Amino acid sequence: MPGVLPSGKVKVNPSVKKKKFAIVVSQWNEEITEALFAGAFSALRSQGIDSRQIIRKSVPGSFELTLGALKMAQKKDIDAVICLGCVIKGETPHFDYICQAVAYGLTEVSLKTGKPVIFGVLTTLTRQQAYERAGGKYGNKGEEAARTALNMLHF
Prior knowledge:
This protein is of the alpha/beta class. The chain has a single domain (30-154), classed as Rossmann fold. The chain has 5 helices and 6 strands. The protein has helices spanning 30-46, 65-73, 94-113, 127-133, 141-154, and strands at residues 21-26, 54-59, 80-88, 117-124, 134-136, 139-140. It has a 4-stranded parallel beta sheet, sandwiched between helices. Strand 3 (80-88), helix 3 and strand 4 form a beta-alpha-beta unit.
């Protein structure tokens, strides 16, 4: 039975080690999204996933994660897609529109393709909050996204 061990590692079924993962990374707020990618990549590798089974694709911003995820999820050899981005609230409602569109879009991709499409997008009020979730005091949400993908492959 899948689950998370006290160490934070996922109990990985040996068959999952043969799965192929796409990680789609937003280039906007790059210093944060690169930390998220490092966390996700490391988490998959720590579970025995060969680096050749992890495909990275970059998109300009979080809004573009949806199309990037769709293109990767439509590939027959991709089993799960992990989407990593960071949207930081500014002075306009742009934040609300982007966050809503990305959440809805990634949900639609998952439902359309029947594959796990993981929402690893930070939606923070400040840059400091983002850093705290990209390897800071609240851990690395990229690692959590990778563990979620592994768990969903057991479902």
